């Protein structure tokens, strides 16, 4: 059965898109059929997959608006190894258009990708770093959340707000939504604050905190400018190896 996972954090700059792209590539390298959905108007997941967001014939916006089926828009990313439902700045228009709908506005993405269930083992949704109708669509469609988190004070504050949002979504449109895991990104074990916050997370979330950490790594930062996941750009780097370990942990945890 297809597992739909939304990668989300209302705080920006925590490595959400980087995790989405590299996790998609790592799962694909482990013979999983993966679809990455770029629901962020910045379009960084699209660019990081080697697709020019300015040259799209169709995007996830067309799918949300019902103008095209997802199968008409999905692109193959042969170098990365997965399929992509691309996004770009046109998604900023989706917020107003979705809010204008009287019914079913939170289910547009779910309705669009439901028909794809048999074609993919995993659907990863890269959410915008804010709580808007795009994020609500992702949380409505998802079986669960993967939360990338940087170990710093403000990131913890953002996590608290996100947990409140999850409860609201569960109470209203997706009672089965669950937090599948929290992954620590830009991790530096030499930093005392990083260690302190890791302990707080472990004490509070227990096994929900994934064992794998994603380190700060220059190769991870360089890879998007080449339109490649780090697993393809620098496969033997620490960042690449960490994402492969993360993929294996999720496969074991979620029986993917």
UniProtKB/TrEMBL annotation:
- Superkingdom of this protein's organism: Bacteria
**AAA domain residues:** 2-179
**Which residue spans traverse the membrane?**
none
What stretch or stretches form a coiled coil here?
none
SUPFAM superfamilies cross-referenced by the UniProt entry? P-loop containing nucleoside triphosphate hydrolases
- Write down the PANTHER family for this protein, in alphabetical order: P-LOOP CONTAINING NUCLEOSIDE TRIPHOSPHATE HYDROLASE (PTHR13696), PARA FAMILY PROTEIN CT_582 (PTHR13696:SF52)
Name recorded for this polypeptide? ParA family protein
Could you tell me which species this protein originates from? Franzmannia qiaohouensis
